[in-house]
Model the fold of this input.
Amino acid sequence: MSSREVRLAARPVGEPVPSDFELVEVDVPAPEEGQVLVRNLWMSVDPYMRGRMNDTKSYVPPFQLGKALEGGAVGEVVESTVDSHAVGDLVLSNTGWRELAVGPAKHFSRVDRIDAPSHYLGALGMPGLTAYAGLLRSAEFANGETVFVSGAAGAVGSMVGQLVKLRGGTAIGSAGSPEKVAWLKEIGFDQAFDYHDGRVTDLLAKAAPEGIDVYFDNVGGDHLEAAIASLRLHGRAAICGMISQYNATEPSPAPRNMTMIVGKRLVLRGLLVSDHQDLTQQFRAEVGAAIADGRVQVRETVVEGIEHAAQAFIGMLRGENTGKMLVKL
Amino acid sequence: MSSREVRLAARPVGEPVPSDFELVEVDVPAPEEGQVLVRNLWMSVDPYMRGRMNDTKSYVPPFQLGKALEGGAVGEVVESTVDSHAVGDLVLSNTGWRELAVGPAKHFSRVDRIDAPSHYLGALGMPGLTAYAGLLRSAEFANGETVFVSGAAGAVGSMVGQLVKLRGGTAIGSAGSPEKVAWLKEIGFDQAFDYHDGRVTDLLAKAAPEGIDVYFDNVGGDHLEAAIASLRLHGRAAICGMISQYNATEPSPAPRNMTMIVGKRLVLRGLLVSDHQDLTQQFRAEVGAAIADGRVQVRETVVEGIEHAAQAFIGMLRGENTGKMLVKL
Done:
């Protein structure tokens, strides 16, 4: 059978460009014993993928030049050699960036049919769990506290704010356009601002005149500096991502107020969702119920066709998405 | 009775200069009911005092212009109005920067007579407890781990390294002169380097080719950047001080590798000794015994006379001390 996949043609320097990617038609072999053949319905583009495009040692190996990229995908089994997986089963895997995927059945987790399977890549998937574990574990959020989240209109950030509201806290978010800010207020954020409207430190001081207890960092740079200034005694920051840095060709200067970490006894804690898979069931049950009864709103920005996947990824890094950025295959 | 005290004459800009301080002769009143009169024998100069000389809100109020400075002091009761304090008792207080002090008895803690009462300001005092609590609590050090400490030849740093060795770990230290480096090796550090000998990142990579588990930060800036690069997965940093920044008039650009906090799931935790007073007894018993039987070495740099206290403080910020910097009154 014939499929298309997206390969890394060149390692991006700074902001990725379309020529860094290559769409290739390939023959997919029939599944061998123990394998399944899956047609992907949805694939994810996520900020962390930018790091894997660099040839640097990190927590995951870099993508290989000339090889297909990888990432979250939801698909349907079209051919199976194992009892555990039936044709038609909905599965979650890391075989994104391709239309058809073949591989060991154990690499494809069966998931329940739900109204919007794409949620398994966003609100009910890796970004949602990142928000959940980051807020409750990394940042040790206590009900009722005040939380500032940057990149608040993204897949992770929008979930952070809504989880805070579900737990009686105050949610403050920053985003990159007036439309996003309006959406944040619509879904319950107490305060939201467009970071283009001034110095982030000033904007945050205005939004949180009494300071914040928790910062959930998706952006880094001046957002982290503003948060360090605003955090109260014993405040905590979950360092989840620093999207402002991913395309940087020069290392960015640190927050210039790092000494405040001492006097305020702040805790900055790096967060990687893979450490928190044990929370998956609890998280899906809680957030699934909140989505079902409307207490949590989910928004997705959908690009159609694998031929536009690279553009979706580039656009996501530019902030063109509201909520989760997805590619429908 | 007549005494001398050191007052803050001007708020230092950058590195403090002698004219920022003023030595004044004052009359000390007789102690009122509930008060004691104490002759200070030793006073401490500590890095944190530099922050209090700025007119900025912090965890302690700034020193007031024209008023006597404050800080740790060990003295002897010379007059008492209370049963709890007898003439001749050794007391620890925050009445440094003056020869005679009068005040409520409860502000003067009675301490046991020991061979070297000056240790109450260093190895058995605030700096020692800072090392103890920072290593065991803030950095969650586990026996046998590898620890890098900056400012290792200072009062706090030299204790950190020796506590690591007492617990079967590997101690790596940086300091500012070949003499200090030699002393660190003498007291048991496994590796020590002079940070003037190259980029700290390179020097640390050479000293700890397999990386470190814990960083104890007394310096900030490029030392913190080097540590972030060297820390292993789930590494921890106790952020105790950033002496490289205290005299800075411009914020420092480093560390420039903050994104590594995410992938390595690092934890940076601000440390202030006042949160850990509950450990005092346990700490003094353990470290006191280790000093007594020679497992922990104590070094002090002593300046004589209150008229040289300002110079001792300025010199300490420049790194002129090895071990604790003290003024003998």
Summary: The mean pLDDT of chain B is 96. Chain B has two domains: 2-122+298-328, 126-274.
